[in-house]
Amino acid sequence: MNELDLHYPPDACPFCNIASAFPASSPSASSPSASTSWEKLRASVPDDNVANPEKTSPSCFIVLASDEVIAFLDILPMTRAHLLVATRGHRVKVEDMRGEEGREMGFWLPILAKVVSKVSRSTDYNIVQNNGARAAQVVPHVHFHIIPRPETMPQIKSKSWTMFGRGQRDELDDDEGASLAAEMRAALREQLEKLKNDSKL
């Protein structure tokens, strides 16, 4: 591993802190269908009373907390509903991901892309993933950006860097972040319900 990849040790990683603050939930043992894949997936979407942004510093606006994957709002979003999708375990680059992490990431990315599209009301979006400091990776923990591209884009000064997560970005307001994350969790539950009804779960 190159020293350029190690900005800080894993125990200081902000994404690992988020993963610790929002552990994967198990379906209720009292539920008659607790062993079904549907119940397990549904339990991966935190309830609003569990999704307290102040569990971490800075605040985290969580959308998904599954066994292997977490998703939360970017606190310096490029556009509204800019979502980060990360491995739960500390993996620096995609090449470091384990099999189950890759499978679960592959399952959640298309579903979360639909959620971002619905909430942002934009059918166009980028999915960006950087590996290493020279590739513009700021946090050395595997994560994908889902960045909506609305018809009316904000004025961005450094257009050449926008796709890679750089450029003009404003800090996410806490109240707006909490409201937006709750809306995205509701949209995610709807997407899972559609999958269940389509007999894909």
From TrEMBL:
PROSITE patterns, sorted: HIT_1, HIT_2
What start and end residues bound the annotated signal peptide? none
Family annotation (Pfam families): HIT (PF01230)
GO terms under biological process = nucleotide metabolic process
Motif Histidine triad motif per record, residues = 141-145
Q: List the SUPFAM superfamilies.
A: HIT-like
Which superkingdom?
Eukaryota
Domain (HIT): give its ranges.
Answer: 49-161
Active-site residues are 143
Q: Which GO terms describe its molecular function?
A: catalytic activity
Its recorded name reads HIT-like protein
